[in-house]
Design a protein that fits this description.
8-stranded mixed β-sheet, 11 helices, single chain
């Protein structure tokens, strides 16, 4: 189960089976088995550079095909039947099945014949101790090869379920070294954060479906997205939101349907942005809509995306907080689903910061794309959530929140992912808007340079292509620079003004 919240945490594994194992992700967009076969054959033909060795196998995650016929085949890697975390790769095939290289972060092929010296039960106890949830339990574990910059290590991936004190569900993934019994890494699976009269966005049009004499808040034109009222619950779907008049909410928080209208509108604008701008047909690119749940728990000041239910969940806020149903939050959270189904950026270290930044970037672009006068586009994250009006994060100068990083350093990967994301958020602002003073802020550079922006459309296109074609689960900031330069070269040409702007913006945040 993978979930991502606006204010803290993400997950990335599949829903646990009753036996306590971690099966492969159940749903995916239709893919080409022919492309898979050709990609694996090319990997084996280039086994040296691709780090392919005896005992390895691959499964297909998805295929992206460019207008010129170039295929980008994303694969999961296994060694001796065990998943290789960080071993995923994107094989790039040109016309005539020509090899154009592979994108991956794997440093060395997994060692064959590795044996666990620590029992699964011991690993479970270690993982339980690593969780800070108020209630916790071991939901399952599996042996994996965990890849890092030095190579791979046999480890147990243990999923610890439970809930934090504020009611946020926990699905902590803990990697326990199968030789030493020490924790190698951990990341949270819950990533925190008709006519609709919304609280945040005014009166808008929302998709509805007439069933008998009642209108349901169900959007048949966007993959069948539905909006449910949990009525303070924390599980299930609750009650489908309906109306006799095809009007949902009245713009006030006293009306329970107001938050539902906000959620439906946010899902609608996120779907439309990805479809219109990037040609992506839903979060999984399979035409299937997610669903949304509002009124989660009581006084819950957060929101989260969950891969396992393929759904968005919003709290009502609490003291000093409004409902977490603003446009940028909707775009942010559902983008975690897009990232899960493309690069799969692991939610720890620098890759976790890039995961969070990707959601901030596209949440911002959803807000701009909606062009809603009640919530105009800006480079602030969550500016409508607090009664004080103080945003959660700033893209022009991330450190204004008191915790986020403006510039890369070797210690960035040790920050909480919501703060290490500042480096990529700052990069994107410089790429889109430029340095210095503008209507959106006053953005410095870390190297004293001046950067000229190329606009949201080009900057967004570059980041989307980098995410979906070149980034992999363990991409770090140096890898993100390489990925986005490759994307800029594809779209605008190597040495183009756009390519040079990407290089300049990365250098301006100390990623050289």
């Amino acid at each position: 189960m993978r979930r991502t919240t606006l204010l803290g945490g993400l997950a990335t594994a599949a829903l646990l089976a009753a036996a306590g194992t971690l099966p492969a992700t159940a749903s995916a967009a239709p893919v080409s088995t022919d492309a898979f076969t050709r990609a694996v054959a090319q990997l084996k033909a280039h086994s040296g550079s691709a780090l392919v060795a005896d005992g390895q196998s691959f499964t297909l995650k998805n295929v992206q095909t460019d207008a010129d016929g170039t295929e980008h085949v994303r694969l999961n890697r296994y060694a001796d039947g065990l998943p290789v975390l960080g071993g995923d790769t994107v094989v790039h095939l040109g016309k005539g099945n020509t090899w154009k290289g592979a994108s991956q972060s794997l440093a060395a092929a997994p060692t064959r014949g590795a044996k666990a010296r620590v029992s699964a039960a011991t690993a479970g106890r270690v993982a339980l101790a690593a969780s800070t949830a108020a209630t916790r339990r071991v939901d399952g574990s599996q042996l994996v090869h965990d890849a890092d910059a030095a190579g791979t290590t046999l480890a147990y991936e243990v999923v610890v379920g439970g809930a934090y004190a504020d009611g946020t569900p926990s699905e902590l993934h803990v990697l326990v070294d199968a030789t030493t019994g020490k924790v190698r890494d951990s990341w949270e699976g819950v990533q925190r954060e008709g006519t609709g009269n919304t609280f945040h966005s005014g009166t808008v049009t929302v998709g509805s479906t007439l069933s008998g004499s009642t209108y349901q808040l169900a959007d048949a034109t966007r993959g069948g997205h539905k909006t449910y009222d949990l009525n303070g619950g924390t599980s299930g779907t609750g009650t489908l939101v309906t109306s006799a008049s095809n009007v949902f909410g009245d713009g006030t928080l006293a009306n329970r349907q107001t938050a539902a209208a906000d959620a439906a509108y946010g899902a609608q604008m996120t779907w439309d942005y990805y479809k219109t701008v990037h040609g992506r047909n839903g979060i999984r690119n399979d035409g299937v809509g997610a669903y949304s749940r509002v009124h989660y728990s009581s006084n819950y000041a957060n929101a989260f995306w969950s891969d396992s239910c393929f759904c968005m969940t919003y709290g009502d806020g609490g003291s000093g907080w409004y409902p977490l149903t603003s446009l940028d939050v909707a775009g942010h959270e559902m983008t975690h689903g897009v990232t899960s189904n493309t690069a799969g950026l692991r939610y720890s270290g620098e890759s976790g910061g890039l995961n969070e930044a990707t959601s901030d970037i596209f949440g911002t672009l959803v807000e701009f794309s909606a062009a809603n006068s009640k919530d105009p586009g800006d480079y602030l994250i969550g500016e409508k959530l607090r009664s004080s009006g103080v945003p959660l994060r700033y893209m022009d100068k991330p450190s204004k929140d008191g915790s986020s990083a403006d510039c890369w350093s070797s210690s960035v990967g040790r920050l909480d992912v919501h703060y290490s994301s500042g480096v990529a958020n700052h990069f994107f602002y410089l790429l889109a808007v430029g340095s210095g003073s503008s209507a959106y802020g006053n953005s410095p550079t870390c190297n004293g340079s001046t950067v000229t922006g190329i606009g949201n459309a080009k900057a967004g296109a570059i980041w989307y292509r980098a995410l979906t074609r070149y980034m992999t689960s363990r991409t770090n900031y140096a890898g993100a620079r390489t990925a986005s330069l490759s994307a800029a070269a594809d779209l605008y040409g190597s040495g183009s003004a756009e390519y040079n702007a990407v290089a300049a913006a990365w250098s301006a945040v100390s990623v050289n």
